[in-house]
């Protein structure tokens, strides 16, 4: 019995990274969107305002199979607004994807066929989608990269162009970073 405890401890240690990778939803958003806590800010977020923010995400991961880092920005914003007590009903976010980051919106099967590895951006994209973040891809980027809609994650919205997506979101009151 005493020999079983070290083996169990070793098994748990080896499993720990995969358990962390297995996080989903808000837990994953808070993990990947983490930032340094700032106690008692002197310029806090106004909890009565409605925030409409869109981000351009254009940079591909350094290596295929890695998370596209730009998807962390809306996760970070959600984490910070949660920490400041801004109701999620007051937070409306969107991501406009084009350039090298476009491939990160592919389903795992399509991504793996193209790159030989799994698409590590999918868990965060799914969590952001579940949190109400709109994920919009530039139709021109799809055409240039020869990516068909059937290769995309099912919740990705296709715009005519990134410019049209920005214009539409701007007309809806979004500020684009």
Describe the model.
This protein has seven helices and five strands, in the order H-H-E-H-E-H-H-E-H-E-H-E. It has a domain of 113 residues: Hypothetical Protein Ychn, Chain: A (3-Layer(aba) Sandwich), CATH 3.40.1260. It is an alpha/beta fold. It is 41% helix and 14% strand. It has a five-stranded parallel β-sheet, with helices on both faces. Helix 2 crosses helix 5.
What is this structure's SSE topology?
Elements: H1 4-21, H2 25-32, E1 51-57, H3 72-83, E2 91-97, H4 108-115, H5 122-130, E3 134-138, H6 139-145, E4 157-159, H7 162-171, E5 175-176
Parallel strand pairs: 1-2, 1-5, 2-3, 3-4
Helix pairs in contact: 2-5
Query: What's the CATH topology label of the domain at 24-33 and 49-151?
Result: Hypothetical Protein Ychn, Chain: A
β-strand number: 5
Oligomer: single chain
**What structural class do you assign from the helix and strand content?**
alpha/beta
Rg, rounded, reads 19 Å
Order of helices and strands: HHEHEHHEHEHE
* Basic shape: globular
Largest sheet: 5 strands, parallel
Strand content: 5-15%
Please write the CATH class name of the domain at 24-33 and 49-151. Answer: Alpha Beta
> Spans with pLDDT under 50 lasting ≥5 residues?
1-20
The CATH architecture of the domain at 24-33 and 49-151 is 3-Layer(aba) Sandwich
Q: Output the number of helix runs.
A: 7
Overall pLDDT metric: 89
Strand order within the widest beta sheet? 4-3-2-1-5
């Amino acid at each position: 019995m005493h020999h079983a405890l070290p083996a169990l401890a070793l098994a748990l240690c080896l499993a720990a990274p995969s358990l962390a990778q297995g996080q989903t939803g808000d837990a994953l958003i808070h993990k990947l969107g983490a930032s340094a806590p700032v106690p008692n800010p002197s310029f806090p977020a106004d909890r009565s305002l409605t925030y409409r923010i869109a981000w351009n995400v254009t940079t591909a991961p350094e290596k295929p199979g890695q998370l596209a880092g730009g998807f962390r920005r809306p996760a970070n914003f959600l984490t910070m607004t949660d920490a400041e007590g801004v109701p999620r009903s007051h937070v409306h976010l969107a991501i406009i994807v084009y350039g090298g980051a476009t491939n990160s919106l592919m389903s795992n099967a399509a991504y793996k066929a193209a790159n030989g590895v799994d698409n590590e951006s999918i868990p965060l994209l799914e969590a952001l989608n579940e949190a109400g973040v709109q994920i919009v891809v530039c139709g021109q980027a799809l055409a240039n990269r020869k990516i068909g809609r059937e290769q995309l994650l099912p919740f990705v919205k296709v715009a005519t162009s990134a410019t049209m997506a920005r214009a539409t979101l701007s007309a809806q009151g979004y500020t684009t970073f």
